[in-house]
Amino acid sequence: MKKLIFLTLAIMLSVIGCAKQQEAPQQPQENPQPQQSAQATAETPKAQTWHFAVRTETQKNEYKADDGTVVAARSYEQPLLTLVNEDGETFTGSTPEQGVTAEQLAACEAFNDATASTGLWEVDLEEQGREIYALRAENNEEMPPVGEEVTVSEVYQNGDLLSVLAADYIYLGGAHPDNGLQSWIFDLAKGEFVSLWSLTDRPDELKQTLIYAIGAQISASEEADGFFENWYETLSQKDDFNVFFHAEGMTVWFQAYDLGPYALGIPQFEIPYGTISRFLNAYGEQLLDLPAEARVIGDFHEAQELWSWLDSGAPVDDSDKQNAEIGGVTYELYRLNSPGVNTISDLSDKLSRYVDKAFVDAQLAKTDQFRELDGKLYVYIAGRGDDLTIASVDYEAQMGADGKGGKVIATIHRQDYDDATGAWKLTGAVDTHEFPFTLYDGHAVFDRMEYLY
Prior knowledge:
Layout: H1 2-23, H2 33-43, E1 50-64, E2 70-85, H3 102-115, H4 125-138, E3 146-158, E4 161-171, E5 178-187, E6 192-193, H5 203-220, H6 231-237, E7 242-245, E8 249-253, E9 268-272, H7 273-276, H8 282-288, H9 292-307, E10 316-326, E11 329-336, H10 344-351, H11 357-366, E12 370-373, E13 376-380, E14 390-399, E15 405-418, E16 423-440, E17 443-446
Parallel strand pairs: 2-3
Antiparallel strand pairs: 1-2, 3-4, 4-5, 5-6, 7-8, 8-9, 10-11, 11-13, 12-13, 14-15, 15-16, 16-17
């Protein structure tokens, strides 16, 4: 009985205590847990979107002789790859955070390490300046300080492609200063530098096309006589070309003295993307991300090259020839040197990649230049030479409103040989040709074709 009374009393006291506790005002708790969690969340920077940007930082050095005279000076404007958010703030951390990835930081580090170089000329400016100053001082001659100045002149970024061009000026006490250019081509996604040849699987064809385009510009230049006579051999022997990519195409340049004397300066040549688009591999197409017009002009150049075969410009194997009768006369025919093309049907398929098949077959039916003999395709070489009155050709691709086709306009600039000067001169005459096309899988197939040259 006593146990029951004590148990009842304990329960009543517990109920009364709980009631009083509910009626009493709540006292603030020390360091409440929910508030601490909210504060920690507020202090943690939220993830942001960061993109690459280039800024420049100038480093200046000045060197003096013992008497305080400035003997050398150097100013180097370094392009620095940084990360910027949507508010224009620059990321200053060194570890991945706030949405910045390890790959982005690695790309910045790789680029900035490379651009911290000393420029084009590997020379100790301080030592050079002191030596020249001491020599001039002995002869009581005044001398301006030797120096170098590197400045970033152009920056182009498109998607993952970053292209930076810098001018390098140096004076080492001679009769005149020297000037040069340098560029950095960088894949932002891979965090790697890029060479021109990594963008193509057809380097020999690309190189030859560039040499031809550069040669055409040299010939049309008012300074054509200022180039070295062996400029073609020099270009042919180069393993690489200096390039800078921009919105309209790429600039190819050569340092002073490469193709001409100092007075010629730094030869620069503009190469439209349409000239090189057909040689790009999948990586080159992805990185350069060319507009449809550039790809169409590339297709037109490919069509022109193949169509030249009908003017007897076909590649042949001189060691494999056959005799065949054409129009009652026996001629020597040479085997067509094109892998996989052994019949007229094979040739039609190859040409039809860029030109309407019905048009191709109609043209092949008109010519007897090609003969199938012993399971091989042979060519009768009897075509005309190139049209030497063509000084240059400009190409423009116009897309149709539906985006499914359009036309390429080829504008030919004519020239004539001047007997008095012994050189070709522009006549001012211009004629145009239009080539309608339809797009299939992003590539142009032309309704008709004629070889311009």
